[in-house]
Amino acid sequence: MWNLALLLVVLALAVPAARAQQVVGDAIPTSLTGQPGDAGRGRAIVASRNLGLCLLCHSGPIAEERFQGNLAPSLAGAGSRWSEEQLRLRIVDGARLNPDTIMPPYYRTGGLQRVARNFQGKTILSAGQVEDVVAYLATLRD
Amino acid sequence: MMRLRIGLCLASVFVASLALAQGGIDKRRSGYQDMGPSLQKMQDDGTANPGMLFVQLGAQAWATPAGAANKACVDCHGASGATMKGVALRYPAIPEGADTPADLEARINLCRTANQKAAPLPPESRELLSLSAYVAHQSRGQPIAPPDDPRLAPFRERGAALWAARQGQLNLSCAACHDDNAGKKLAGVTIPEAHPTGYPVYRLEWQTLGSLKRRLRNCLVGIRAESYAYDSPEYVMLELFLMERARGMAFEAPAVRP
């Protein structure tokens, strides 16, 4: 019983520092910041090897980045395949839809193991950066 | 007639080796096979492989007395190093009188403290890397052969669990890349199967020789996970798992990698 109580306390403490988001079905309907993102900034985040990290695994229509990954689907056409709301959940925490995904949870701090000290309690992207990436991906239409 | 027979014989050997190369028997790939021909040549050529410099330094250290006992490795193990043939293929192992496994570097340091009465060599120090390169080089070309010691099983199982555990801010496991996505491109780089066939390894990215621990730490940093301390048992457990996974593969130390 005490173990259960302790577990609940630990779980409560582990609730993400990231702001709670309302998940509806396979989407997060509202912007994490309450504001629309900036597609131009989003493109730069997606292209960045140490900020977005996206092109390590995905390829995408960003010609100046020559070395792109093929572990994950191409980002080309992402805006045709998914709505902004659906893209938002896939970036925030893709494991909500597929527990086996290798897609990192970009806006979650809970439930992670052995996070390096300098990244503890921090999300991979900020809420504003997530919105920027959502805005950029939404422009990628077939 | 004779010519035809030899021709047929060669053809069948060729077909057999092609089948082997295509994975009819063993589909595992050493990182060597993912390198371009110039890097392969650098590894194969003893005068071009920078790791061989460390092997030479190791040969000198092997013959140099150390510690309060003023003994050199040669005083017990012989001058040629040939007594070390096969040793690196079966580490980590449980040293006599111990109850937990040690990797090759820890075993070298055990000899230093117990027999030479010398201070242990620091991790990734030139002298420790040189001695382990010298010992490992004696096994070059031989198949990896972990010992059938049942006491190792629980440590190896913990290594397998570590391998499969997600960790770090990016929430990835070793297995997610090196089992499930090996051969694919992470950015421009082919993800290797991560067989520890060539440690200590000369990595161009490091511009020096380094241990398997250092390589594992690189991946931990990459997934934004906390690195284990250099003397942590987790590395030994992971190595036990990886050496079993690579059982039978040819040992390449000192290997060259990009």
Secondary structure blueprint with pairings:
The complex is a heterodimer of chains A (142) and B (258).
Chain A: H1 2-13, H2 39-47, H3 54-57, H4 78-81, H5 84-93, H6 127-138
Chain B: H1 2-21, H2 37-44, H3 51-62, H4 73-77, H5 104-116, H6 126-137, H7 153-164, H8 174-178, E1 185-186, E2 189-190, E3 201-203, E4 208-210, H9 212-222, H10 233-245, E5 256-257
Parallel strand pairs in B: 3-5
Antiparallel strand pairs in B: 1-2, 3-4
Question: How would you describe this structure in keywords?
Answer:
heterodimer, A: 142 residues, mainly alpha, Cytochrome Bc1 Complex, Chain D, domain 2, B: 258 residues, 5 strands, disordered N terminus
Report on the architecture of this protein.
The complex is a heterodimer of chains A (142) and B (258). Chain A has 142 residues and is mostly helical. Chain A has a single domain (24-138), classed as Cytochrome Bc1 Complex, Chain D, domain 2 (Orthogonal Bundle), CATH 1.10.760. Chain A has six helices and no strands. Chain A is globular. Chain B has a single domain, classed as Cytochrome Bc1 Complex, Chain D, domain 2 (Orthogonal Bundle). With 258 residues, chain B is mostly helical. The model of chain B is unreliable at 1-21 (pLDDT under 50). The longest helix of chain B is centred in the first third of the chain and has 20 residues, at 2-21. In chain B, strand 1 and strand 2 form a beta hairpin. Chains A and B meet through helix 3 of A and strand 1 of B.
